Amino acid sequence: MTTKVDPDLCISCAICTNMVPDVFIMNDDGLAEAKPGDVPADLEDQVQEAMEECPADAIVIE
């Protein structure tokens, strides 16, 4: 599983970075982004939950 954050939709609420800091970070522009690479298997459920909680629907799981 991989994930990304659509910068055009992100509202910088930091829900994802607070829920899964090993996958999501805030970049220099103050927007969330996913760290490169595959999501560790033990964090997949948390990433799914972060996607569901994102108020801007900015998280995409592939």
Automatic annotation (TrEMBL):
This is Ferredoxin. Residues 1-29 form the 4Fe-4S ferredoxin-type domain. It comes from Alkalispirochaeta sphaeroplastigenens. Keywords: Electron transport, Iron, Iron-sulfur, Metal-binding, Transport. GO terms for molecular function: electron transfer activity; iron ion binding; iron-sulfur cluster binding. Pfam families: Fer4_13 (PF13370). InterPro entries: 3Fe4S_ferredoxin, 4Fe4S_Fe-S-bd, Fe-S_cluster_ET. SUPFAM superfamilies: 4Fe-4S ferredoxins. Ferredoxins are iron-sulfur proteins that transfer electrons in a wide variety of metabolic reactions.
